[in-house]
Amino acid sequence: MSERTLPSGLRAVTRAMDDLAIAVVHDLVATRSYSGEESAAVGVFAKHAHALGMHVAIDEAGNGHATRAEVTRQGGVELKDSRKIREIVLLGHIDTVPGDVPCVLRDGVLHGRGSVDAKGPLATMLVAAARAKLPADVGVRVIAAVGEETAVSPGARFVVTRMRPAACIIGEPSGWTGVTLGYKGRLVMHVTMTRAGAHTAGPEASACDALVHAWQACVAHVQKLNAEHSGAFETIQASLRSLRAESDGLCDCATLSAGFRLPRWMLPDELELAMRGVIDANSLVATVAITAEGHERAYATDRNDAVVRALSGAIREAGERPHPKLKTGTADLNVVGPVWQCPIAAYGPGDSALDHTPGEHLVIDEYLRAIGVLTRAVESLASELVADS
After folding, report:
1. Which residues are catalytic?
2. Per the confidence metrics, is the pTM higher than 0.85?
3. Among 9, 120, 188, 242, who pairs with 294 as Cys (CB 3.0-4.6 Å)?
């Protein structure tokens, strides 16, 4: 039944619900929350969660939690040892990368930093969690995690050992008809090469020469590792993030930061060890410093996963065909998936090609459709959890 065929009173209720949902995402996007500066936006999240009738808490890491009353009575934020209520965790993130993209709602499109990555998906989760009709012994928790855009993801790491959900949905843009089954792993390395200052006409390699030579050797080694594999999700991707050089007249220094996106067959520690060996073997200067961070292993589920089935079924009920996806980026799914070992997938409105771009925007109609899909998926998942008990 379209909105035009609804009774006038029901149309008014539907529009009021839509207006409230739009206010949630608008207010979140309008509140700047670069990684490490999320407290104001967490406050906005808490305000809207309370208005939606949910219980609110902020944990020691700064994450915002919004729960249905049944879950709160079982221990609030700390649910590590609780088995009385099966909990569905909707884990989104509230931080964004830097970049001032003004928040403007115009012609059914919300422009602004975080509208896609990932306040749109987070708002979708909050509204869907409040609307879902749940059995008495199934609870839902929405987490607005901090620091996801950093290499250490402190918000997700804080909660991962403090709860054991029965199922989890990660809030990331998949498009309203998409379901993300998994993400690649990650490794970030920083390499600095230093040598005594010398004339550029001299025979010895400069610090920059040495660094570029070592990086080229790293890329060649990655290509060798990839030789028996194909496809973006099943191969290692290596990219330079930054490259700089400086000199004080006595010492020349060159530094690079590189990122590696890892398939399921390559562990971060294993690649780090290999890259250290390649750099050491190809160093043209005596002084080399190497550090690494952001170690995340690839993680993926399959189409028979309970969360994937619930999301896919809800998309079909909305009249569309679900599109399963594997992403080459990294998300908090990589952090919690290996530990929780529960049904898990990622979902949210928005085109991920707009992530981190100056043209980031969210189509409001897609956002509202995604709320409907997620509401139905949570209800379906809750029913399955009860049936399996």
Report:
1. 95, 148
2. yes
3. 188
